[in-house]
Inverse folding.
């Protein structure tokens, strides 16, 4: 029951966070005073702005407006794109698949490789291999994703002519965006797995396994890795927000038709309903993912199991 | 606890507890990288004779180490014939300056809120910690782009927005440390002799928090450096012709076919700053851990 209560309180916390984010994106538009002026083209006349203000309901008391925003959002209506005259949610769902493909492929290869590199580094602690892995993980975190992406384009598209420099649709289009986006997580996960595994390998039950004569790799794979996974999984949830942020820049460079590119274009076009929709959606993904992390954590950690 | 001791002991001598050479080599490399970057961004704008904002239109897209009209361009020139070394010097100064000022805002704000949350507890704590959760749920870059696009892209807005969005991690750590310190006896004693809450927080809680916050700041700087560069890259930071590390790369991107050095060198500078801060931060963490054990 302890675990269930823990998960329930986490779910309530998630709802509060979503409420807070909704207030944040709603009131952000009022920071300069008049959202109508903000959204209209700079050369609009005063009459046009007034008509727009009336049509959007900006003349109502701000609390009424927020209540309306919230109740519409709960019904899946996040407003209409000013540029495309279509529901913001529709634009978002159309672009969702591309971003999910990019983010998940980046997370997948970097997690798998990160686990292997981290485990090797931990078992061969302080060896030349450990040192080499450490250098790789330092370099992976050192450069911004957009710079790495441009370097990959110079190498693989311009010099070697192996991969297309931008676009969407085939596996060869996915390789470079996924590499660029995953590099940072490769570093982070490698470091985390190494530190976590070194700690676990010093525990008593691992010594018992060793005393039983099991080989070191068997101990790592069968016994230590499971417990070493707990901090790694917890942090995966935290990384998700920055993964979405990184996807945003990656999509711009590779002309990847995902929600990151949608968001940046919406910001450049002052299409704020779409921006609000993207921010809310990103927060929702973060909250849901962290809840799933809590579920996994409860399952992996017997001390708080149901 | 055995495990955690063994993970720190790889950096310290098992007998004397002194740091091994490798740990100090990291610190030396970190300080070297940061010192070179700081010297570069101060000396180049001061002493390099070529202008960062005005170029020689007859000297566009010259590769590194070209001499045009008696002027050597060690890092080449851009589409307007401006000297990249001069622009990189000024750009590094701008970016690093923006990052440091916004980091200062984050630390002060986060530490203050974290101490208040930890010291008072109850609903104050609950409200501040939920704000932390809300802050951390939105991707930083998205939030910053939203705010900058509402407020308009300017250096001041960028500094404020970067500063206001980075406080959450500092608040979380400051709160945790305050919760520990609050239980210590001398805090009770201070209360008994009639010190006000504000006096206790400033004189007795704060000194215990400054150390961990400094380490956290060093580890958080890379995130801010890359964030500032990303905003600049997307064209929503400091506006051209004023260079920053991010907008240099953003401008160079469109001409990457003919002048890849315009993208290469600003990226290397970002890498040097980030590796320097990361190595220094890791070293400070290890030093703090080895002191504890």
């Amino acid at each position: 029951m302890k675990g269930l209560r823990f998960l329930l309180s986490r779910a309530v916390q998630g709802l509060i966070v979503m409420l807070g984010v909704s207030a944040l994106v709603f009131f952000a538009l009022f920071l300069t005073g008049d959202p109508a002026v903000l959204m209209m083209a700079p050369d609009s006349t005063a009459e046009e702005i007034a008509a727009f203000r009336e049509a959007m309901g900006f003349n109502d008391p701000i609390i009424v407006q927020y209540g309306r925003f919230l109740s519409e959002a709960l019904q899946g209506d996040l407003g209409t794109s000013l540029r495309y005259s279509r529901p913001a949610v529709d634009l978002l769902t159309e672009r969702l698949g591309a971003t999910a493909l990019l983010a998940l492929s980046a997370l997948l290869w970097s997690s798998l490789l990160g686990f292997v590199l981290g485990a090797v580094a931990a078992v061969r602690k302080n060896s030349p291999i450990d040192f080499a892995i450490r250098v790789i993980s330092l370099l992976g975190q050192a450069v911004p994703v957009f710079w790495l992406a441009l370097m990959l384009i110079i190498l693989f598209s311009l010099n070697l002519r192996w991969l297309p420099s931008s676009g969407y649709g085939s596996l060869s289009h996915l390789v470079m965006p996924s590499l660029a986006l995953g590099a940072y997580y490769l570093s982070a996960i490698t470091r985390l797995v190494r530190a976590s595994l070194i700690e676990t390998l010093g525990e008593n039950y691992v010594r018992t396994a060793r005393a039983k004569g099991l080989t070191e790799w068997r101990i790592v794979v069968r016994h230590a890795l499971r417990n070493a996974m707990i901090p790694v999984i917890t942090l995966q949830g935290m990384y998700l927000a920055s993964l979405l942020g990184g996807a945003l820049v990656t999509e711009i460079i590779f002309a990847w038709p995902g929600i990151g590119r949608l968001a940046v274009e919406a910001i450049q076009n002052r299409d704020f309903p779409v921006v609000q929709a993207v921010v809310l959606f990103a927060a929702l993904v973060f909250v849901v993912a962290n809840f799933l992390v809590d579920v996994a954590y409860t399952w992996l950690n017997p001390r708080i199991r149901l | 606890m055995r495990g955690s001791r063994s993970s720190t002991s790889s950096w310290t001598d098992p007998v004397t507890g002194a740091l091994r050479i490798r740990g100090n080599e990291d610190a030396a490399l970190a300080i070297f990288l940061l010192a070179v970057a700081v010297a570069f961004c101060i000396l180049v704008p001061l002493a390099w004779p070529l202008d960062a904002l005005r170029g020689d239109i007859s000297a566009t897209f010259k590769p590194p180490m070209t001499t045009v009209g008696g002027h050597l361009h060690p890092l080449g020139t851009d589409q307007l014939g401006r000297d990249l070394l001069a622009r990189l010097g000024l750009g590094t100064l701008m970016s690093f300056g923006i990052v440091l000022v916004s980091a200062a805002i984050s630390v002060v704000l986060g530490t203050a809120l974290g101490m208040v949350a930890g010291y008072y507890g109850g609903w104050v704590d609950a409200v501040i910690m939920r704000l932390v959760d809300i802050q951390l749920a939105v991707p930083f870059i998205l939030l910053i782009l939203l705010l900058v696009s509402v407020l308009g892209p300017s250096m001041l807005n960028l500094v404020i927005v970067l500063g206001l969005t980075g406080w959450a991690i500092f608040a979380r750590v400051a709160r945790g440390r305050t919760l520990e310190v609050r239980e210590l006896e001398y805090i009770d004693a201070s209360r008994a002799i009639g010190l006000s809450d504000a006096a206790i927080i400033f004189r007795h809680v704060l000194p215990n928090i400054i150390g961990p916050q400094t380490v956290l700041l060093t580890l958080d700087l890379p995130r801010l450096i890359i964030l500032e560069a990303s905003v600049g890259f997307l064209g929503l930071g400091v506006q051209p012709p004023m260079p920053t590390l991010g907008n240099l790369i953003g401008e160079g991107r469109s001409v990457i076919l003919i002048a890849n050095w315009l993208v290469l060198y600003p990226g290397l500078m970002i890498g040097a700053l980030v590796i320097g801060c990361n190595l220094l931060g890791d070293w400070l963490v290890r030093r703090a851990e080895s002191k504890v054990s």
About this structure: Chain B has a mean pLDDT of 87.
